[in-house]
């Protein structure tokens, strides 16, 4: 079976590609390489350097005839979305609509869409299950909510995966969602560590567990909406302690006020996906951190390309 992965040279996408290749899928990836890197891509994987809004995307569908699509390409920065909502609209909504239109035209068996815990907004109860109301607090979360609704109305066989805070090797430390990579880089390089608040909690899920969930979604041709998470609530202060202990660094962080509008607590209920996919997070936070720290300590990471 052939799988088309958008954003396949990026942080999550490159791990998804590896997971699929390791399970004997034929993989084709599309990436505009704005935040993705060719160095993340396995040498035997066919790669198209294209933006998902490029009209040549249909050429890829016509030539490759994928059985499945895993759509990971996105503008993922909340801050960038607030500064440039048009870019968010173009990439996360219009780009997705173009892909699902082509998926329907070329009889794709299942369309897997990477959504986000951000769609829930400030939770009214914990843990957050898939029936929780959606409340966009940024243009980014609004774009994910809107894309989900477009997918639902298109009548495709589709599986929407709402990721909690994904971390692991290859994550861009410059991205605001990458608090773990930011902390690790600062500690490894001996820089000052800033903590905004610290009591706020998040649900951290390792990227290899996320990649496995994407594979299982197409294997079972699952439909519906599923939280992909560890189901464990961890505070930012606790997280920094875990990382510092693992690295052996006793740097005292600089604490600053929590950012305005930041959600104080978040943890997702993953029982639905556990029952439907027989999926659970295999990696504990300590195991995932150990692999991630090893990566940032030993690998020379490429810089973001200049625009």
Structure description:
This protein is of the alpha/beta class and 307 residues long. The protein has 10 helices and 13 strands. The strands form 4 sheets. A 7-stranded parallel β-sheet has the order 3-2-1-4-5-6-11, with helices on both faces. Strands 7-10 form a two-stranded parallel sheet. Strands 8-13 form a two-stranded parallel sheet. It starts with a strand and ends in a 9-residue tail after the last helix. The model is unreliable at 301-307 (pLDDT under 50).
The strand order across the widest sheet is 3-2-1-4-5-6-11
At the first level of CATH, what is the class? Alpha Beta
Strand content: 15-25%
Radius of gyration: 19 Å
Which SSEs are present, and which pair or pack?
Blueprint: E1 2-6, H1 11-22, E2 26-30, E3 46-48, H2 57-64, E4 68-71, H3 78-83, H4 85-105, E5 110-116, H5 139-154, E6 158-163, E7 165-167, H6 179-189, E8 194-196, E9 201-202, E10 204-206, H7 207-219, E11 224-228, E12 234-235, H8 236-247, E13 254-256, H9 271-277, H10 285-298
Parallel strand pairs: 1-2, 1-4, 2-3, 4-5, 5-6, 6-11, 7-10, 8-13
Antiparallel strand pairs: 9-12
Helix pairs in contact: 1-7, 4-5, 6-8, 6-10, 8-10
């Amino acid at each position: 079976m052939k799988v088309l992965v958008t954003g396949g040279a990026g942080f999550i996408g490159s791990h998804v590609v590896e997971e699929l290749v390791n399970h004997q899928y034929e993989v084709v990836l599309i990436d505009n390489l704005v935040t993705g890197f060719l160095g993340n891509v396995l040498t035997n994987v066919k790669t198209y350097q294209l933006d998902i809004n490029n009209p040549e995307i249909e050429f890829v569908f016509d030539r490759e005839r994928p059985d499945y699509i895993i759509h990971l390409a996105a503008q993922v920065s909340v801050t960038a979305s607030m500064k440039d909502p048009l870019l968010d609209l173009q990439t996360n909504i219009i780009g997705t609509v173009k892909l699902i239109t082509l998926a329907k035209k070329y009889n794709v068996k299942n369309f897997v869409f990477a959504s986000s815990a951000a769609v829930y907004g400030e939770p009214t109860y914990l843990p957050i299950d898939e029936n929780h109301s959606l409340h966009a607090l940024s243009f980014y979360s609004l774009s994910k909510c809107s894309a989900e609704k477009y997918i639902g109305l298109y009548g495709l066989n589709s599986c929407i995966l709402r990721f909690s805070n994904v971390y692991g090797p290859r994550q861009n430390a410059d991205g605001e969602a990458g608090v773990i990579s930011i902390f690790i880089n600062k500690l490894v390089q001996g820089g000052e560590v800033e903590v905004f608040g610290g009591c706020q909690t998040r649900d951290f899920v390792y990227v290899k567990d996320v990649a496995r969930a994407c594979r299982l979604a197409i294997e079972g041709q699952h439909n519906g909406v599923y939280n992909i998470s560890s189901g464990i609530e961890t505070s930012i202060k606790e997280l920094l302690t875990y990382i510092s202990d693992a690295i052996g660094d006793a740097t005292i962080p600089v604490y600053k006020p929590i950012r305005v509008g930041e959600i104080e607590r978040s943890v997702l209920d993953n029982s639905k996906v556990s029952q439907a996919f027989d999926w659970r997070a295999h990696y504990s936070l300590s195991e995932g951190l150990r692999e991630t720290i090893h990566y940032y300590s030993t690998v020379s990471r490429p810089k973001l390309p200049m625009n």
